[in-house]
Amino acid sequence: MRASAIRPAHLFDAPLVCKTGVKQTTFAIAEADKRNYAGAYYAGRGEGGLGVQVSLALRRSGADEASWGPPPVHANVAESALATPWRVVMLADTPGGLAASSLVETLGSPSVIGDTSWIKPGKAAWDWWNGWAVNIPNAGVNTATYRAYIDSAAALGLEYILIDEGWYVGASEAPLPGSDVTRPVAAVDMPAIIAYAREKGIGVWLWLQWKQLERQMEQALPLYAAWGIKGIKVDFMDRNDQEMVDFYHKLLGKAAANRLMVNLHGAYPPDGLVRTYPNYMTQEGVLGAEYNKWSKRITATHNVTLPFTRMILGPIDYTPGGFRSLPPSEFAKNIRNTKPFVQTTRGQALAMYVVYDSPLAMVADSPDAYRNADGSWADGAGFLGKVPTTWDETRVIDGDIGQFIVTARRKGRNWYIGAMGNESPRWIEVPLNFVEQGVRYRAEILEDGKDVNRLAAREARVQRGGKITLSLAGSGGAVVVLTPLP
After folding, report:
1. Is beta strand 467-472 parallel, antiparallel or unpaired with respect to 426-431?
2. Tens of pLDDT along 86-139?
3. Which of 36, 163, 401, 421 is deepest in the core (most CB within 10 A)?
4. Is residue 132 part of a domain?
5. Which of 445, 398, 388 is nearest to 421 (CA)?
6. Any bridge partners for residue 203, and if so which?
7. Which residues of the chain have pLDDT under 50?
8. Using CA atoms in the order 264, 266, 270, 271, what is the torsion angle rounded to 10 degrees?
9. Does 219 share its domain with 345?
10. Which CATH number covers residue 370?
């Protein structure tokens, strides 16, 4: 929409991203380093001219606490002395310049954690998205099911499993009375699960509803640490008022004191807290893969809009890994909650692990999705264990909002390239002007194959000054791994 069409009644989350109309120059409006202050929304000025106004979220309490929808557009902040957050304008010559920026994270306050050696990024096998769909009798929230997820994580080369909603007494989306986040349900033998995971070299994360956790935080976090839990996923905050901003700081600080990593799921837009609390690995606050379970909204166009909008603020828990693809023309007739489909290709599924920034990345499909009927690995499954989740260098090579993106990320001396496109098929040329001079590389290329669930694999020898041409199907993608040759 044109900026002049933004009305006072509109409410936008950060970032508000705009093209200037001058070549590809693009800017974004956001905020950073909130503490003891309400989060912002953006609306039209209402004066007939261009510009935005900042509206602060009202504190919610009581019955309003679990309500959904936009907050009131007036402020309710502390009356004591306080510092306002940074008001941020990000400006770049191209949309890709925003996608590669770390400005919002840089504006976060310096780390309050001294020893960070216990903070370990990685990828996690996950139960909820695929509906606890493992090929064992009576699969569900129980010990046998999580042993199966541990086996799958170990076979794929992942670092973690995430045990989602239902593992503790009274677990629910709403803060119902009678819940107890320190007591696993009878079907879940938590000591046995953790011991088995430890034998397999797999760490365990736990899901929690935020209000249920808040009631027992002082007791629960040391207990999880004593159990050997590596991290917690806290969900359904769904607010950015002053009270919730304070909760984030309290939770992340106390989790760090107990050496627990954190994923905040139903969360407000990132504002740099990952710098202040390095144990804050990732967060949702995005229209991600879960919507494939009940809607048609997760299109290829949406997926290639996110790197230029939501992702410019910080890590994004999109929850990729959907390996059951259908063409968009068939997807709407096959929406389902268990073993859901995606309407993008296998190539795009892999590319998300390079393009989307998330130091904790979900591998969201059921274990059998990554195996063929004969037990061999499905196309691209080997890449899931290989691809890193943190990087030494990032280059956004090319792209445009809602059209396509090509991102190159370096880990050590290896480069990983991810390319994603919208519904239009395209050829993409990737100039190799970012690799080491004088070094030859083996390029392992996986791109869209003969159907949405197949990949075409090839290899090449390349060097600086050359290029790689990638073929992307409609709603497709590709990945490349560049490894220096001896």
Report:
1. antiparallel
2. 999 999 999 999 999 999 999 999 999 999 999 999 999 999 999 999 999 999
3. 421
4. yes
5. 398
6. 160
7. 62-74
8. -90
9. yes
10. 3.20.20.70
Task: Give the CA diameter of the chain.
Answer: 66
By the 8 A CB rule, do 123 and 160 touch? yes
Tell me which residue of 423, 422, 408, 379 sits closest to 480, measured CA to CA.
Answer: 408
Quick one: tokens of 177?
């009375």
Do both 97 and 176 map to the same domain?
Answer: no
- Given the DSSP bridges, would you call strands 360-363 and 404-411 parallel, antiparallel or unpaired? unpaired
Q: Give the domain range for residue 144.
A: 122-390
316 & 367 share domain: yes
**Residue given tokens 């034998």 in the structure block:** 199
Same-domain check for residues 386 and 404: no
pLDDT tens-digit series, residues 152-209: 999 999 999 999 999 999 999 988 889 999 999 999 999 999 999 999 999 999 999 9
- Which pLDDT value is given to residue 59? 67
What pairing do the DSSP bridges indicate for beta strands 122-126 and 360-363?
parallel
CATH label of the domain that carries residue 97: 2.70.98.10
Indicate the SS3 state at residue 384: helix
Closest residue by Cα to residue 351 from 304, 313, 398, 309:
304
Give the pair of three-digit tokens for residue 375: 């037990």
Is 286 contained in some domain? yes
The whole-angstrom separation of Cα 461 and Cα 449 is 21
Beta strands 203-209; 393-400: pairing state: unpaired
CA distance 127 to 146: 8
- Determine the Cα–Cα distance for residues 231 and 221; give it in Å rounded to an integer: 10
Peptide bond before residue 15 is cis, with ω within 30 degrees of 0? yes
Of 390, 408, 436, the domain-final residue: 390
Is the same domain home to 273 and 400? no
Q: Are 370 and 428 within one domain? A: no
DSSP H or E run through 349: helix 346-355
Backbone φ, ψ for residue 467 (5° rounding): -155, 160
231 and 284, same structural domain?
yes
Percent of the chain with pLDDT over 90: 87
**Catalytic positions:** 235, 290
Q: Return d(Cα 204, Cα 18) in angstroms, integer.
A: 41
Phi, psi of 201, deg, nearest 5 = 75, 30
Distances (CA, A) of 155 to 297, 351, 381, 473: 32, 21, 10, 30
Q: Say if 381 falls within a structural domain.
A: yes
pLDDT of residue 256: 98
Same domain, 44 and 164: no
Q: Please give the structure tokens belonging to residue 355.
A: 């393009």
DSSP string, 411-434: ETTEEEEEEEE-SS-EEEEEE--S
Specify if 117 maps to a domain. no
Which residues fall within 8 angstroms of residue 292, CB to CB, at 6 or more apart? 298, 322, 335, 340, 341, 342, 343
